[in-house]
Specification:
Blueprint lengths: L9 E7 L12 E9 L9 E3 L10 E5 L11 E6 L7 E10 L15 E6 L2 E6 L9 E9 L5 E10 L3 H7 L6
Antiparallel strand pairs: 1-5, 1-7, 2-3, 2-6, 4-5, 6-9, 7-8, 9-10
Length: 176
């Protein structure tokens, strides 16, 4: 928690998965964040952050980008500084998409997938994609700014049969 506010301030979203079996094409999963304004909270993202990019104001940054899943624990991480987002931004949705260069892959095809959302040392959410095994991309968490300006979160698991490009346009479309 940041300052005197009871809302969420700065979170890290981390992703892990097992590498592809020896000799098979790599499994490449990517964290993607969509930032939305109040006047278009379920339309096109005002900002889209993914591998090779960051938000223009520096509030959302991909710290590590793994292309193989090799390593110990969480291999890819994104920082979201909610308390620094301009007041016009009222919704942030974070999801994961599987690169499809090795053929059609779903979460059920990839071993030990997992995502963790953490504020400081507190885990807000741990998810394993077991509820969306046939999906090629999925939302995992939604952050919403309340009327008082504080941010809250909720798990937001929704699978899509969409590659990363198509997912980027769909990431904020689902209403609770």
């Amino acid at each position: 928690m940041s300052g005197l506010s009871k809302g969420i301030g700065r979170v890290e979203v981390a992703l892990k998965w097992d590498p592809a079996p020896s000799g098979a094409p790599v499994h490449d999963l990517d964290l993607i964040a969509g930032v939305f304004t109040a006047d278009d909270a379920y339309g096109a993202p005002a900002q889209l952050v993914h591998f090779g990019s960051r938000s223009p104001d520096g509030t959302i940054t991909l710290l590590r980008d793994s292309r193989t899943g090799q390593g110990f624990g969480y291999d890819e991480a994104m920082t979201v500084e909610l308390e620094r987002l301009a007041p016009r931004y009222t919704r942030v949705v974070v999801g994961v998409a599987i690169q499809q260069g090795a053929g059609r892959l779903t979460f059920g095809d990839i071993g030990s997938t997992g995502v963790r959302v953490r504020e400081g040392y507190t885990d807000l959410l741990v998810h394993d994609f077991a509820d969306v095994p046939a999906a090629r991309s999925a939302t995992i968490v939604e952050f919403v700014r309340g009327e008082g300006g504080d941010w809250s979160f909720r798990p937001f698991s929704h699978g899509f049969d969409a590659d990363p490009q198509a997912f980027s346009a769909l990431i904020g479309s689902v209403r609770s």
